[in-house]
Amino acid sequence: MNRSRSSESGRNAGGGGxxxxxxxxxxxxxxxxxxxIPSLAFFAVQSLSLEQRARAALESxxxxxxxxxxxxxxxxxxxxxxxxxxAIVRATxxxxxxVSISVVEETNRQSFASVDGPADRDALIVGxxxxxxxxxxxxxxxxxRMSLAPYLAEDQRRLRESVLHLALVFSVSSSxxxxxxxxxxxxPLARLAQSTRRIAEQDLTTPIPFDxxxxxxxxxxxxxxxxxxxxEAFDDLKHKNAVLESLNELSSDWIWEEDEDFRPTYISPGMxxxxxxxxxxxxxxxxxxxGSSLTDPxxxxxxxxxxxxxxxxxxxxxxVLPSGExxxxxxxxxxxxxxDGRFCGYRGTGKNITERKRWEAALLNSEARFESLFELSxxxxxxxxxxxxxxxxxxxxxxxxxxxxxxxAVQGRGGDEFGLWxxxxxxxxxxxxxxxxxxxNRLEVQMRRADGTIRQVSVFGRFIVAGGxxxxxxxxxxxxxxxxxxxxxxALNASLESRIEQRTAELAAAKLAAEEANLAKxxxxxxxxxxxxxxxxAIIGLTHLLRREIGDARPLVRLGKIENAAHxxxxxxxxxxxxxxxxxxxxxxxxxxxxxxxxxxxxADMVRDKAVAKDLELIVDTDHLPPMxxxxxxxxxxxxxxxxxxxxxxxERGRILVRCRMVEADGSTVTADDTLRIRFEVSDTxxxxxxxxxxxxxxxxxxxxxxxxxxxxGTGLGLAISKRLAEIMGGQVGCASAPGEGxxxxxxxxxxxxxETPWPSLPxxxxxxxxxxxxxxxxxxxxxxxEMLLSLGLEADTAASxxxxxxxxxxxxxxxxPYRLVLLDWRMPGMDxxxxxxxxxxxxxGPRPTLVLVSAVAPDLTREALSAxxxxxxxxxxxxxxxxxxxxxxxxxxxxxxxxxxRVTDDEAALAEYRQAALLLVEDNPVNQExxxxxxxxxxxxxxxxxxxxxxxxxxxxxxxxxxxxxxxMPRLDGLEATRRIxxxxxxxxxxxxxxxxxAFAADRERYLAAGMNDHVPKPVDPEELYxxxxxxxxxxxxxxxxxxxxxxxxxxxxxxxxxGDSGVGADTVIDWPALEARFADRLDFAAKLLRSALDxxxxxxxxxxxxxxxxxxxxxxRVAHGLKSTGGNLMARRLRDTARQTDLEIxxxxxxxxxxxxxxxxxxxxxxxxxxxxWLAARDVNERTTESSEEKQS
Length: 1195
Known about the structure:
Elements: H1 2-48, H2 50-72, H3 74-79, H4 82-93, E1 98-105, E2 111-116, E3 125-134, E4 137-147, H5 149-200, H6 215-250, E5 253-258, E6 264-267, H7 270-275, H8 296-307, E7 312-320, E8 326-337, E9 343-352, H9 354-376, E10 380-387, E11 390-391, E12 394-395, H10 397-403, H11 407-410, H12 424-435, E13 443-448, E14 454-466, E15 469-478, H13 480-549, H14 553-584, E16 592-595, H15 596-613, E17 617-621, E18 628-631, H16 633-649, E19 655-663, E20 675-684, H17 691-694, H18 706-712, H19 718-728, E21 732-737, E22 743-753, E23 771-775, H20 779-791, E24 795-799, H21 802-814, E25 821-825, H22 833-842, E26 850-855, H23 863-868, E27 871-876, H24 881-892, H25 907-911, E28 918-922, H26 926-938, E29 942-946, H27 949-958, E30 963-967, H28 975-983, E31 993-997, H29 1002-1011, E32 1015-1018, H30 1023-1036, H31 1047-1050, H32 1073-1079, H33 1084-1097, H34 1101-1111, H35 1114-1130, H36 1134-1148, H37 1152-1194
Parallel strand pairs: 17-19, 23-24, 23-25, 25-26, 26-27, 28-29, 28-30, 30-31, 31-32
Antiparallel strand pairs: 1-2, 1-4, 3-4, 5-6, 5-9, 7-8, 8-9, 10-11, 10-12, 10-15, 13-14, 14-15, 16-18, 18-22, 19-20, 20-22, 21-22
Helix pairs in contact: 1-5, 2-5, 5-6, 13-14, 14-19, 15-16, 16-19, 21-22, 26-33, 27-28, 33-37, 34-35, 34-37, 35-36, 36-37
């Protein structure tokens, strides 16, 4: 098939090629004739006018030359200069066109000069005579004779050139025209002819190319559309044929056709498949010539019907197959007539009805079987035939046995007639369910036996066809015994349910008791925490004060032990409370931005003394972590503090390394929501653990070994709490260790990257790629410092000892690439930092590098002592990027005023470097305003105050502040809306705005950030936390820093003897007076000022609170409670603060009854606070007057 199609295509292509060649020949002949005929006409015309043109040109030249010679010979002829005349004539006669030139004098008619030219004298000669005049007198004449032959030759040459040009133009034009015609006409026509032939040969698969730029392209496009439509029609026809064939194959019928003589001409293949007859035995023979089960009259009637050209349906025939099997066929046909009414034959369908015949026979047999089964069935049955709406029931033998009726008593009667149905409604309901063909028409009814007993019977009915008619078959199932058994089971279940309810009540009571016990435990823990923390605060605070006042060494040592024991006990209490919160599911995470470096330094500071005491080196490696992350930094720090504390506890010598790095999750370190997977790892060189010991870690009250508790102490809660905290944060913890090889505890936790101002780069005037040498005996300490230096754009090398450092410095100087800076560790084996500095000072190299001493233990040396030892600065370990940056600026740019981080650790003192910054404090509560303003002023900051959001907005528009502290709930305009409006001012797009409020829930902080605030400072304000937050945001905002103020310049307030006077307040007070006096130890005047402000501000508040309670004004109670939260915290009135917080929380939960109850408590506590304040102020005034009078007497 493929070969025939290929050859056919080849013939088509060949025919198209011959057609194309003949067309090209015709076009070429037409083009040649189109150019040749005009060219020949042009040549004939030019040839006929050749002599005429030559003569005209000759006469024109003859006239011109005669005139020229007449003018040229005038003077020589006048002067009779024969020689000159001869020369002029000869010069002219040298032209091949001249035959001769003669000059004749006019007076004597004699020849004056005569010259023969080179022209052919046999050709046609034309002469002209011209007179020569001089001053108006005719003195002679010149006779010029020229030959026509040169002109004829020139014209012939030009004619030949024209013919050549025409031939060339003809050749080029013919080629271009033929190419154009071949491309634009011949080829498209050839393709059209070839496509037309393919279509004629029913090849519709090849598309017809077309180009719509000309008429042939549009014709081709039309033919392509025709081809596509034909192809679609052919495909549709093929599809229909295929469908028809498939239907024939799948159908239970077949198709047949007969001619006008009733001879079959077509029988579809389905007949052979369905019947098994060979259609070849049937083709060409009328149906009555085949064997049939019909009688002769039936066949004659059928034949007469066909002869009359009438349609027929379901004409049944039978045939005997060669196998001996008889098949039955049913055929239907319809006559077919031509358009002129002529009978053409029959067309119809046939089907195999053998199975139907078999089923009909089987049905007759089944009815007989049904009769026997009905009668012999052990189940009670009845059959009611449906005939004209009347019902006559027939019962089987089993029914008579079960119900005890005699056949003659019920035959011909309905069940309701002889009392079978106890309730007539049941009979009607069953009839409706059967007639309506309900899917589930099984009913349970009461029926009466012949002896009068009532039985519970399940009846079920369904219509069947039996004996050729529709009948209702009903099944009767006596379920009396089953129902009695079910009643017994129900009674037993009721008894079991009663027992279960009793057990459930007992379990509920046990659960309630457990919950009450759990609540009691939580209440006990909370009370114990409060009761234990209160004396613990006193113990720790008084111990700290006693250590400052006592100078004797032995009591100082004992006080130090007391303080350490108190801190240890406080840590155990915190662990127990954390564990209790975790188990109760009440531990909430605080999601906020935090500084990784500050968190790590806080951990290091808390274990620094213990590490120094054991001569352990603490190293921190942040490995290019982002400086700011978002998450619960406090909980991360708590876990790391536990790890580092354990490392210090179980390590006797060596080092402790805290390493932080990003790890990959699913092939990336950053997820789609900008979340980082951070791994914190604390490794040590301690005693290590076995695998069996590690398996017991991270469990409550478990340690690696029982002996561990006896030797090192501890409760075993720290690691368990760390694991629970990590899981709450979505992270995990783990440990790797081996006995004698140290341990590595790690924490992996997801934290989000947050936008923050990166740490500034070094000033531009510091030499780029400045060479720095890092000297440390520990590789873990050297490499992080080297990476930090490289990230700052410096070139850093390392040395592992003092000797190696001296050699490296000397080699670098000899090579002309000296080190500008050397970071020198103090405690190294062999040559320590001071000895190395001495050796470096003795080297004969120049310039000498600048030395910076690096140590975990700050030597008790002044700046002058360090300078005398050769050091230009000091860098404390663990080294962090910011500490290294400041140390570099201090030694490389001492004029920048960067403070020394190793010596200035007080945030309050560090804030003095931003004393030129302008701050705005927005607070409506006078007491809170005084507290915050005093704290900020004490740190050396310039502060303006605003009483509400409106005033703050006005002040911000008039002056640009570097930082704004914003209260949230204020009259006229609250803090959130005020922040939004301030952010709209151009100069406040990036100014830090910090929220100051007692609402410290996570949802509240999210609202603050959404309004445009940067951070949150909780109330009551902790001075250290306030200073830390202010310092961080002033640094990030890029505020200019001034040189630090010397400690002596800041001044120290004199101590106040708090034991000298009696406040007049008992122990059971609202205000914690010892805590208040301890908080304002150096500023008791300010504490008195706060109390007086509270008395003025809250003078009318108790009456206002009474009014709100009386009318149920929850909003008014909420405003009062919000103000009392912060006031109670500032005045150390903790009960008042806690009650106000609880009131605020209940208002949020819309618990009106609880709010009114708490408001009553607030009223009483506020009255007590005001009374205590008055008594304390009165007692203080008495003490001051007494002191003044004593001083006057002494003076």
